Amino acid sequence: MNPEKPDRITFRKRPQQERSIQRVDAILSVAAALIAEKGVSAMKMTELAAVAGIPIGSVYQYFPDKAAIVGALLDRHSRRIQQKVEEAFSTVTSLNDAIELACGMIDWYYSEFRSDPAYLGVWLGTDIDRDILQLNIQHSNRVAEIFLASIQSFLPAESRIDLKARTQLFSHLIGASVRFAIMSDDDMARRMLHEWKQVIRVTLLAEPAP
């Protein structure tokens, strides 16, 4: 079970009415654009309010500080990825199938987010805030849980793999490798991800040495 998120990275007041929901969506849309343009650290709350055409007090009504906005954007990206992972792994038929689905998810992840500079900006923002980094780790672990649940019934009874530890590690490494690829030239990015998929095929479910 994931720990509660700290108050500073959660909604101060969750929007209920349609007008409030639209206002929060406008705040997050402008925040995503500003982050894509200049990064998390350079985005100012006052600038965000001005560009969105919303009083600064209304911004703080929903978000206690900039970290809460980054957290909300990260949640949006994370839910999108988790939904795709759940859909992909709902039809696993074997361990080999699961590994190939994982490799396919890498291709989807890269293609889907390479053209989304706000995603990369938000992720880079996790490095400057411990609470946001923890939120990203929780997301990565949730993806690992989905994968683990999909393969559990196909594992041999004598398997000695510490699957919880291994799947959490690989989930984190896959996310990091895709983000590294997004920051690279497209040709090199695809070559690196091809090599990474080869590593995954050989090692993800390999039994440990005796």
Could you please describe the fold and organization of this structure?
The protein is an all-alpha fold and 210 residues long. The chain has two domains: 61 residues, Homeodomain-like (Arc Repressor Mutant, subunit A, Orthogonal Bundle); 130 residues. The mean pLDDT is 88. 70% of the residues lie in helices and 0% in strands. The protein is built from nine helices and no strands.
Q: Count the E strands.
A: 0
Residue windows where pLDDT falls under 50 for at least 5 positions? none
**Strand coverage percent:** under 5%
Integer tally of domains: 2
* Sheet having the most strands: none
Distance between the termini: 32 Å
Helix content: over 70%
| Protein structure class | mainly alpha
The ordered H/E elements are HHHHHHHHH
Number of helices: 9
Task: Identify the overall geometry.
Answer: elongated
Cα gyration radius (Å): 19 Å
Give the integer mean of the pLDDT values. Answer: 88
Task: Please give the structural blueprint.
Layout: H1 18-38, H2 45-52, H3 56-62, H4 66-88, H5 95-114, H6 117-125, H7 130-151, H8 163-182, H9 186-203
Helix pairs in contact: 1-2, 1-4, 1-6, 4-6, 4-7, 5-8, 5-9, 7-8, 8-9
